[in-house]
Design brief:
single chain; mainly alpha
Length: 45
Amino acid sequence: MNNHTRKFFIYTRKSTDTEDRQVRSISDQLAELKELAVKEQIEVV
């Protein structure tokens, strides 16, 4: 049986240079992905 632990990381990005066109801030993206990781019991490294 394969007992390798899968490891995950969070990747966020800014899609545009202009603030008025940026839909989700990087901090918003990070918060949402951390919340999802907790909900899904995903270990982020």
